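Q: Mind making up any chain with structure tokens?
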Amino acid sequence: MNKQGIHILLADDHPMILSGLQTLLDESFDFTKVSSAKSGKLAIEIIENEKIDLVITDWEMPDIGGYEIAKLSKSKNIKTVVLTSHTDIVYLLEMISLKVDGIFLKKMDNNEFIEKILDIWEGKYYLDPEVSKLLDATSKSSEISARLTKREKELLIYQHKGLSQKEIGLEMKIDVKTVEKHKYNVVRKMHVKNIMLAVIKAMELGIINK
């Protein structure tokens, strides 16, 4: 596929990454122009003053971060890819909120990088499988957490600490029958067979601390 006439902007404060990506793109496609920016400020200036077709930006820049770069490029209807080493859910949700066209992890290999850049240029969307898995887990955790009452979450914490039903009742100031009722509701809402599996699932989903 002929890619002549496309102007790509690479933004990354790491010279080796910037140079490596520029070489990779130059060697892979006959782009008319591949510009680079070692700072967020320069990236913003280029987007504001030049016709850019695709932005590939690091998320963490020393001055103006990837959030502002991606926000500006998307406001100008420029295809935008975030390149990151972050798997922190807070950062990932920020990226998703901007409706970027792709989220690539920096450990992605060169062949896959080029393949997915082509896909994005053709209008497709790409989310790294690891990122997708984290987002799915977060969505599932939020859904289950929303089902549980404050008292049911409290019970899970005490159950995780190894307290008996009587001890849980004393801590929560309820009788043993109410403790049993809370356990039943937790197991039912979390779709598991018993309360210990509910505790394990709650830890896996981050509903309670390990």
Remarks:
- The first strand starts at residue 7 and ends at 11.
- Residues 148-204 form a domain with the Arc Repressor Mutant, subunit A fold (CATH 1.10.10.10).
